[in-house]
Amino acid sequence: MENTNKKLKIIYGDATLGIAGNQFHYIFNYARGGPESLVINGKEWLYREAKPTFWRAATDNDKGNGFVKKSIQWLGTDMFIDTASIAVRINEKPIAFPKPPVNNQYSDAEYADKVEIVYVYQTLTKPSTKVSVSYAIVPGGTITVKVHYYGNNELPELPVFGMRFIIPTKADGYEYEGLSGETYPDRMAGGGFGTYQIKGLPVTPYLVPQDCGVHMNTNWVKVIRSTTKNNADNSHDQFGIKICSLDKPFAFSCLPYTAEELENATHVEELPLPRRTVLSILGKVRGVGGIDSWGRDVEKQYHIPAGQDIDFSFSIVKA
Amino acid sequence: MQADINWLDDPEVFRKGQIPAHSDHQFYKDYDEAQNDKSSFEQSLNGEWQFCFSSNPMVRPQGFFAEDFDSSNFDTIKVPGHIELAGYDKIHYINTLYPWEGHIYRRPAYTLGADETGKGMFSQAEDNRVGSYRKKFILPPEFYDKNVRVRFDGVEKAMYVWLNGHFLGYAEDSFTPSEFDLTPFIKKGENLLAVEVFKHSTASFLEDQDFFRFFGIFRDVTLLAQPQTHVEDLLIRPTVTDDFKDGLLDVHCHLSSSNIDAVVNVIVKDSEGTVLFQTKQQAAEKIKVNGIRFKQIHLWSNKTPYLYQLIVEISKADGTVLEIVPYHFGFRRIEIKNKVILFNGKRFIINGVNRHEWNARSGRVITAVDMEKDISIIEKNNINAVRTCHYPDQKLWYRLCDQHGIYVMAENNLESHGSWQKSGEIEPSYNVPGSLPKWRDVVLDRAKNNYELLKNHPSIVFWSLGNESYAGDNIAAMNKYYKEVDTSRLVHYEGVVRNRKYESVISDVESRMYASPEEIIEYLQNKPQKPFLLCEYMHDMGNSLGGMKSYMDLLEQFPMYHGGFIWDFIDQALLVKDELTGREVLRYGGDFDDRPSDYDFSGDGLLFADRTEKPAMQEVKYYYGKYK
Fold first, then answer.
1. Hey, what CATH class is B5-226 in?
2. pLDDT at position A1
3. Which residues of B touch A212 (CB under 8 A)?
4. Is the N end or the C end of chain B the one with fewer CB atoms within 10 Å?
């Protein structure tokens, strides 16, 4: 039914929180610890829940200088993470967490001007630290995502920190406003600012697959697809989603693989057939280094110290 | 002279019967040929050769060089090519360790005692593969009654050569030409050239380059006819006056089979073809024209690679041209003043790369097309200098660098890191060449081959003694040699950093590899004695090349800092068909059951092995453009 009152409709499910509006429908799962469905204009954008990401497939330099061994805990928590708590706010006010039977108080006609759901994650590191991810949705459907990492001095430096969206099918390509080419914090002087269209999801063919395809200083990225996994959807028309920076530019990569998939291959041909799109929106990226590949560290200013809080935010809008 | 297989074991035998090294000038029958760069004095012997592979010397077909030898069971192989890539022997990549690591125990002859002669170490070795090549060719009628030679531009690592069953000689130094005189045994009609190539000899201790370990005839083989009077060697020595306005030119020719009736005409033209100078002399063994003065010269540099043309024309008294030798040369000056390297009077900045010769399909067998592509990539990305790591390249490369204004650090074919770098430790107990008298002449010969061949190229601004070979009397002797024969270039060697004892007698510059910006600052702030450069830096393995700014900033802070050569230009990996998908994929060390290996450590290029640019190239283009 068309939502005519320009408010968000909220569905207080038993295991999920549904939020609907004009041409969008989002489902946030409690037990699975993140948004499970982002449907925009009838197209699903999530394959699995969006989660924070802490790992990049080790570069030759990461291996050579021993960084991977120092930071190995982050690989574990990149793959598996605990949800510590979930909170819901309606029209800027916290509500009692709407699990059964608390949600019996609601109806099929619940509306609001703003819904915010905050996941707090507990990393599987020693010691553990927390990450909170807040999704705030307004009636137009725009989602504002705010990510906060709680610094802990006892933890090793991070390879990367961001949010990972696994998109159900392989994208046709993406477009972004930022720097040309593949850039990293310590390798971005040669990147020219502009709007770039990338065909397909290129994986830089380093001899041994490793982290690649990062674009620094990005104002927005638009992912374009023409396929879904919905068996009843026969359209091949292109559709898109746009991620926009809010207070400061972000970095991102848009690849057909997770860090772990890249990490496992010793050759390009061992990578799986590209089926999905892994969009990582990154608040912090460690430099790649270059002095040598057998010991020298990345320059200090391009590290990600674990002791400092990290904040970044972005919005997800219809493209 | 009889071929002796024991030469493989003896570091004092490295050339037998070879024509002495000489300049790389082309020679033509007339001006038309010179114009079209097509000499009728040359005939290529590339192509299909008969071939027999033997897994060791004991089972090789001895006597295969005889005309009546039954070679009906020989295969055919394409020349030039690596024997491994033809499918005969295992492809192997390893960095510093000698390729026999973990398989065979070897110590270089005489390193552990005067009586440790190394007899049989290679001549009787199970792992010493042998390629026996036979090539039948018809002597072109134009070659009748002329002196005829054969030139091998590159053969790894040791070879014996026969013509029509007669032994001609023996050669090592895989990356410089080896020439043999065929005249005494050549026949009108069909001839049989036979070449026995060994994978290993004492040269293997000196050619331990960090690359795929190939053997075989991997560069061109050419039949050469010589006119009655022939320029055997040409020395062009252009110098620039202190005000950089005028040029002085010395031209020395060494003529062979000099015909006293011949006349030598030495002509110099500008790039447009206007004759600037001309002199005629009666032919003699040595022709010397000294001190030719040119006013208001165009200097050669990266920005303006202006080349003058020298033509040595040899003709009979009646005016019939016998030979035309054209050579492009340039006026430029490199020097050190107040501990700063100056090029044409200005501080010299090296925005360089190290370049191995590479093609993902054919290994170190590369074509003019590959080289031209490399030049265009280099120019496009503001790279101004190339170090020919760690051996002399094909001759054409230097010509292209002359034409395009690419500064060259011309390195000798020498890398012996397996003899002193032990898992990161410096342990030179069996280092070669070291200071061992018996390993002295062989490295001096390599220095000479490099110099004599390439001495006329304006692009070459440094001679480099070799790479990662530690330091001792023998490398000091190479330095001394270059200083004696050539005052127009600087001498470079990095290894002196590992053995400071030789600091004052090896290398005009303080050269390091992979020093951090802080270490460079430390050197430059503490009474530095020599200008500083990085012969290798920014190790571009995989996704790398971060932090280049910190190096480029040093150019602003320290006049004695001169930049460096990025490691390196192109990934060394091989295109092979994937067993599962049939797709062409790139493979690296360890992918051929080759052990021990250093796996993907040869993938450090600014280019992928298929010559596409890595993403990091835009950073190089930016910074090298900024300091162009």
1. mainly beta
2. 45
3. 543, 615
4. N
Kindly report, residue by residue over B604-624, the tens digit of the pLDDT. 999 999 999 999 999 999 999
Strands (E), B283-357: 286-294, 308-315, 321-329, 334-337, 340-343, 346-347, 350-354
Q: What does DSSP assign to residue B415?
A: B
Domain spans of chain B, in order of start: 5-226, 230-329, 344-626
Radius of gyration of chain B (CA): 24
Interface test with B, best of A206, A208, A253 (most B CBs within 10 A): A206
Q: Count the Cβ atoms, other than its own, within 10 Å of residue B564.
A: 28
Quick check: B535 and B564 in contact, CB under 8 A?
A: yes
Please say if B372 is a catalytic residue: no
Domains belonging to chain A, first-starting first, are 8-318 (2.70.98.10)
Could you give the angle at which helices B548-557 and B517-524 cross, rounded to 10 degrees? 20
For residues B311-332, average pLDDT: 96
Q: β-pairing, A277-285 with B155-156?
A: unpaired
Tell me if A214 sits within 8 A of A284, measured CB to CB: no
**CB within 8 A of B24, min separation 6: which ones?**
B177, B395, B398, B453, B454, B456
**At residue A53, does pLDDT exceed 50?**
yes
Chain A residue numbers with beta carbons less than 8 Å from the beta carbon of B582 are none
A173 has which bridge partners? Answer: A199, A224
Third-level CATH fold of B230-329: Immunoglobulin-like (2.60.40)
Average pLDDT, chain A: 97
Instruction: Please tell me whether the overall predicted TM-score, pTM, comes out greater than 0.90 for this model.
Output: yes
Q: Report which residue type is found at B403.
A: Q
Furthest CA-CA distance within chain B: 71
Is residue B15 within 8 Å of B171, Cβ to Cβ?
Answer: yes
B468 catalytic per annotation:
yes
Per-residue model confidence (pLDDT) at position A318: 86
Which pLDDT tens digit goes with each residue over A227-241?
A: 999 999 999 999 999
Q: Do B578 and A269 touch (CB under 8 A)?
A: yes
d(CA B182, CA B164) in angstroms, rounded, equals: 10
CA separation, residue A243 to residues A165, A180, A232, A317 (Å): 11, 18, 27, 6
Same fold, B230-329 and B344-626: no
pLDDT value, residue B137: 98
ipTM score for this prediction: 0.96
Q: Which of B207, B468, B494, B510 is catalytic?
A: B468
- The CATH classification number of B344-626 equals 3.20.20.80
* B509 to chain A, closest Cα gap in Å: 21
CB B455 within 8 A of CB B22: no
Residue B577 tokens read as 């068909």
Tokens, residue B186: 């050549």
CB contact under 8 A, A207 and B571: yes
Q: What is the pLDDT of residue B326?
A: 98
Model confidence pLDDT, tens digit, residues B379-425: 999 999 999 999 999 999 999 999 999 999 999 999 999 999 998 89
First to last CA, chain A: 23
Q: Which of residues 188-227 of B touch A (CB under 8 A)?
A: none
- As a whole number, mean pLDDT of residues B508-513 equals 97
What band does A314 get if pLDDT is binned at 50, 70 and 90? very high
B397 in reach of chain A (CB within 8 A): no
Report whether the peptide linkage leading into residue B437 is cis, meaning its omega lies within 30 degrees of zero.
no
Cβ <8 Å between B615 and A298: no
Bridge partners of A18, per DSSP, are A11, A27
Residues of chain A in contact with residue B566, where contact means CB-CB under 8 angstroms, are none
Residue B497's Cβ-count burial label (10 Å; 0-12, 13-18, 19+) is middle
Q: How distant is the Cα of B271 from the closest Cα of chain A, in angstroms? A: 36
* Inter-residue contact A240 to A228 (CB < 8 Å): no
pLDDT, one tens digit per residue, over B248-273 is 999 999 999 766 689 999 999 999 99
